[in-house]
Structure formats: C-alpha cells, structure tokens
Give the backbone structure.
Amino acid sequence: MKQIEKREKFDMKFTEGLQVVEDYTEEAAIKEQLKVNEQLVEEITTLFLKDEVEKFGFKKVALTISGGVDSAVVLEFAVRAFGEENVYAVFLPHSDVTSKLSFECVEHLRDKFPKVNWIELDVKPIVERFETLIGLETNRSNSEKLRRGNITARVRMTVLFDIASANEAVVLGGSNKTELLLGYATWYGDMAAAIYPVGDLYKTQVFQMARYFKTPQKIIDRTPTAELWIDQEDEAELGIGYEVLDQILFEWIDLRRKPRQLYEKYGQELVNKVVKMVKQASFKRNMPLIPKYSLRTIGFEFRMPRDVGV
C-alpha cells in the first residue's frame, strides 16, 4: 500500500514538473506544456544516472563533447551525478570540418569544469585513411557527403568506446528525443551509447536545461549543427525549425493527437513529412530484428532486464 501511495505521489510530482494541463488547443498552451520543471529533471536524471551506471558495475562515464548544446547538457548531468574526476569528456574534431566556434565552445566548458578528464584527438587522419581504403577519398561529390559524415561519426564513437574501455567507464550519448524520433543521428555512430541522459527531452527542452545550468552562452546561442561537413545546419537540413518541430512531435507523440488533427495548425505537408521521418527511423530505435525459431526468442518472449536475477 505504501509503495502505491509513494508511486502516486511521484506521478503527481512528475506531472506537475512537466506542467501538463488539460487544455492544449491553443499554441500558447502547447509551448507552456513543453516547458519542463528544470529542478525536477535535474533530480530525476542525476539519480537515474547514478543508479543505472552502478547497475552496470561502473563508477565513471565517458562522452563526446562537440561544442553543441546536447553534449554540454549531458556533461552537466554527468558532473552532477559522478563528480568531475569521474567524467571523461572527449573532444574529437575533424580539422578540415570542425569550426573555430566549436573549439571556443569546448574551451568554455573546459574552464567551467577544469577537473574533468579532458581528452582531445583530431580524427582527420583516421577518417582519411578509412576513406582511402574504401576508395572514397577521390569522390568529393555532394551526394557522398552524408556517407563521409557517417564515417566520421562512427570513427568518433570507436575512439570514444576505446577510451571508455581503457578507463572502465560507461558511454553516455547526447541524442535528444527529437533526434531519436526523427532518426537524425548516425546509427552506430553518435547513437551508440549505453545511456541517453537527454533522450526524453525535446531539443527545445534541452535548450531550457542549458539555460538553467548556465551553460556558456556561446553554446546556447550557436546555430545547431551536427558539423559532419562544412556549413551544415540542422534546421536547414531538416527543413523545419526545432520550435515548430517539437510542437508537432509533442502533440502527436505525447498528447496522442492524430496527425490529421494537426493539419490546420501546421499544414498537411509538414505534418506528414514529420510522421514519415519518425516511421522510417523506427529501425534505429529498436534492437535488430530476429526471426523466431525457438520457444523463447530474444526481444520477444525473453526480455529479462539486466538487473533482474536469473
């Protein structure tokens, strides 16, 4: 009975923290509901990280730092959960692509968290060697830039996982809810991680947490970019701004409104585009499919959590 009461109190607190209200028909109400209770999110995420990393049997974490807002907020959570000395922040620029602004933003984070274990490595030589081996170095066409960008992302994750292994640390990912829903990330690249600390926060909510944490203003103000090639910008590539995108996703996913109910407000073409992207990216959000032969197939009948005794 006490457990039920405790759970009910938590649900009430969590609902209040997300500022969910009944009337979500007006645009102002949607924007208000998208706002999170920063202190509650900080508390939940910090406790979650401590608990989950301990279940893995580790005490340290590692993450890539890009100079963008997502990795900066994940760093804030990591430091609060484990202390600076137990965090490995890995900056992996590509000297031909990574902007001067990214270096400056990372330097601001170094100043804020001087006791974090900072590691910097230029991945350009590794990427170029890989491109040479597969014959991609001679193809600089625009059509191949995504392929080259994905190689860079996967090289970075290979380096990060090796650093994490050498230091007995769990890898944290920087993907947010918007990116995970749209599949706007490199599969087995920046999506490769044991835990997504901001995976249930939309991009605009990540910005809200950044302001709450007093993340360096230069990071908050910069245009969002995966920076896998020169002059890449998230919103230009997606063809929609994050503010509107998050509202569509929130109404459809969280408030369970039908896509057709959103046509009048956002336009049928735009809503259908977002829905299509989410559906097409479903494979990135699930474990690989397995054909069923046995009595208990992994992912079907056998879904034992790692913290449950065998």
Q: What stands out?
A: Confidence is low (pLDDT under 50) at residues 19-24. Residues 145-166 form the longest helix (22 residues). The chain has 15 helices and four strands.
